[in-house]
Each structure stands twice: as structure tokens, then as C-alpha cells.
Amino acid sequence: MKKRNAFSMVELILVIVVLGIVSSIGAEIIAKVYEQYILQRAQHRASIKTELAALQIANRLRYMIPGTVYRIKNDNSLESIESSFTGSGEVYKGIQWVGYDGDSFEAVSGDSSGGSNPRRPGWSGFIDLDSNSTDKDHLKTPGSDLALTNTIISNLSPTSRNIGNAVVYFPYDLTEHNISSVSGDIITLATATKRHIVEQYKLAWSSYALIVEGSDLYLYYDFTPVVAAAHSSNTPHELLLHNVSTFKFKGAGKTIRFKICRDEPISKDYNITSCKEKAVF
């Protein structure tokens, strides 16, 4: 029989030790890579969700009627956003405003080729003061498809509002003028108040509110389109963002700046925070 060489016990132990060292280093590298992946994914998710919420807020605020924006305090009392703060940031839970109907203003009907049925917006925003059809109770708004406006409002309102629930605002006048009826391109107003009618107007059917409840931000809508209108928990509302840690806002003239921050939980004791700040003119 021939004698064959083999590993000694010492050599086997050395190999096992080396393999253990390599394994521990590899496991640490893999753990670091996975940790970076988790952090980057959480940061990306927090950033995307915060950006989407900020865009939705900005898109709604751009339809605000100047002078109708109010801060909402924790006791549900209101302050004009242009007035001085009467408390710290923790005292305020949201803002509310009257928004003109940008959906039907930007929608159009008719044939793009012109002809007998030219393209028209839901409401044009202009009044023909020289028309015989215009007086203190009737507004001729040429270029408007008020039937389209009525359809859009009815489709968007969860409580079946229509153009009869809408109001008209004139520039530099915070008096809402209730609409009695519409016919063709004529808006008939209720006759309860005196009016100073000018060429431009905005049509509104809803107030809006952004309110932080707990750590969630909600958009309230479809309530009375008047300055400082009341709303309740029964008012239609939708969740905009979970885990909101900061929602601050400030108004000056026709500009509103707001900042919103969201926490993305990674573990029980660790969060990633993403913030977005925008100005709406």
C-alpha cells in the first residue's frame, strides 16, 4: 500500500478560520448594501408621495379667490391668512378658501373647426355690459356653454350640486351673488342684494379646506362657496397624505407659500422625512 499525504488538523482549523473571516466580511458588506437600499427606497417613496401631495395642493390653491383664504385653528375658529398670527404653529390645523370652478372654465365644448358650433368654455369669465340682456339681475356672458358647466358640476359633486348652487364673484368684491337659473349664455342672479356689476367675474360652486387630523392631511370640498363657510365631519373629504409631520402656510396678497413634510417609517425607532415647499400665485 502507498502512503498518501493529507491535511493536518491544524491546516483544517486554519481553513475554517479563514472561511469564517471571509464569510463575516461578506455578510457585513451584504448587510450594508441592503441597508442602503432600504434607506434609498424609503427616501424615494417619501419624496414621491410628498411631491404628489404638494402638487395637488398647489393645483387646488391656484383657483382660490383672493380674500377668501382663512387659517383654521384647532378650535375651528378662523383667521384671514393675511392677518398676523395669534398663536404658534401648533395652534393651526389647516386652511380653507373659496375656489372658482376651474374645471368647467378650462373645459370646452363645440367643434374645433369652427362653423356654427365653435368651441366654448363652460363659462367665459366675461360679461357683455353693452348687451340689452344684461342688467342687475341678468348677466350675458358671451362665449359660455353654461349647460356644460352644469354637467361638470353635477358630475364632480358627491352631493349632487349643480349650477343652481353656484355663486358669482366680481373682482375686489367678496360678496357672493347666488345664481337663480341659467339659460343659454344668460346667468340670472337672485335679487336679494344690490350689485355693482363689472365686466369680469368668477363662478364658484365649492369651498375647500386642507386639514391635518392626527397625522393625516385631508382635502374637504363640496361645501358652501362663501367666505369662511362652515364645514363638518360629514362634509365630503379625501385623504391626501399619511404620516404628515409638518404643514405650514403663509399668505401675502395673492400669494400663498406652504411647506409640507412626511415621515416614512423604516423601523420602530427610525424614520425618513421628506419636505416640499411651494408658492402659489
Mind explaining what this structure looks like?
The chain has 281 residues and is of the alpha+beta class. It has a domain at 96-215 and 222-238. Helix content is 25%, strand content 34%. The protein has 3 helices and 15 strands. The chain has helices spanning 9-61, 102-106, 146-156; strands at residues 70-73, 78-80, 92-100, 108-109, 120-121, 138-140, 167-169, 177-183, 186-189, 202-213, 216-223, 237-241, 244-252, 255-267, 270-280. Strands 1, 2, 3, 6, 7, 8, 9, 10, 11 and 12 form a 10-stranded antiparallel sheet that branches. Strand 14 and strand 15 form a beta hairpin. The radius of gyration is 30 Å and the shape is elongated. The termini are far apart. The model has no long low-confidence stretch (mean pLDDT 87).
- Please describe the biggest sheet, giving its number of strands, its sense, and whether it closes into a barrel: 10 strands, antiparallel
The secondary-structure element order is HEEEHEEEHEEEEEEEEE
Overall strand count: 15
Percent helix, as a range, is 10-25%
N-C termini distance: 97 Å
Secondary structure tally, helices: 3
Indicate the overall shape: elongated
Strand content: 25-35%
Mean pLDDT: 87
Query: What structural class is derived from the secondary structure elements?
Result: alpha+beta
Low-confidence stretches: none
Taking Cα atoms only, what radius of gyration do you get, to the nearest Å? 30 Å
